[in-house]
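Re: that chain you flagged

S.,

Sorry for the slow reply, it's been a week of failed gels. I finally had a moment to sit down with the sequence you sent. For the record, here it is as I used it:
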Amino acid sequence: MTETFGELDHPPRLLMGPGPINVHPRVLRAMSVQLLGQFDPEFTTYMNQTMALYRQVFETQNRWTFLIDGTSRAAIEASLVSVLAPGDEAVILNCGRFGLLLTEIAERCGAKITMVEGPWGSVIAPEAVEDAVRRVRPRLVAAVHGDTSTTMAQPLAEIGAICRQYDALLYVDATATLSGMPLPVDALGADIVTAGLQKCLGGPSGSAPITISDRAAEHIFSRRHVERGLVLGGADGAAGRRIGSNYFDLAMIMDYWSDKRLNHHTEAAAMLFASRECARVALEEGLSARFKRHALAGRAVAVAAGAMGLKVYGDPAHKMTNVTAIHIPEGLDDQRVRGLMRTEFEIEIGSAFGPLTGKVWRIGAMGVNARKHAVLATFAALETVLRREGFGFTPGAGVDAAMAVYDEAAE
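Prediction finished late last night. Pasting the structure tokens below so you have them in one place:
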């Protein structure tokens, strides 16, 4: 008996967790455009346009600015495996889940890891980074700009200068912050920066923007090998130690995105269309206006939580603007509250990982959801659920406080 299940027909939900978020309608429309062959001149024009758009989003002049087919983690892995050979030294900043992820991936590359660590809810001081870099003289320093597991944003300007001083490459994971918080790649001195669509860019997970400096590209190309099935005349152009992954080999992917169009994979056309439209939406709004909108929404979330007697988690001086962690009050059940938000109001807020499991909720206000109506709807629902669960506060306090933030900004 053949079972085909039903047509997809779930109710629309307001996704106010740490990501993914609701996709911008223009991006959904772009994804429905008919496919083209990957070497069709019209399609390669779209590729070039996407590169030009993301140079503006990353605020960089980097020639090598393009997309990795895969989720944001695909771009992270491509970056680390293409830079780090077995035995290379790497310094990794860690004070959350995603610093640990960078460490795990670098270990799988065979790198020698020096971790500069801080407690969850904090950031790493540049002096600690410089001390480690001076001692081990690493090939790469890796940091997470906005770690959604802790909702902290790592300052980067001084770290970029440190890396240049000691001739180390700086990799930055900006999955959760690109187009939502300032990240001027060239001004920061970052060599490789990667992101994802499903956070502030307002797209679906599955394509990962990346930008690579000339000096990082030079190192990556020093490990370039041409795939055997594409070799002409018996020479594969072998240079240094071959990159340990074929799919994530940035040298080969860069050849594919270059004028050579040296085939590497079949480009994910619908995701390229989505990525292109995400960038167009962001740039049409303007990065400065976009940063202000995300900061305003984040402030409204934090103020609303405080007005309800809820405590915001982490160092307030380094809080991400687009994701806020809130301590779960004693006696409230994390899963039950989030479940009621979903079943009664079709709103999703996030749980947490590791040592924060069951201790904080994470509320994201990103992309199309970094707006007044989304914040107010979320807190109206959260107030109702918490009152029904017996948590005491002045009814309407959270919504009123959020509205006051927006009213003040409008004056």
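What I noticed first: The first helix runs from residue 25 to 31.

Talk soon,
D.
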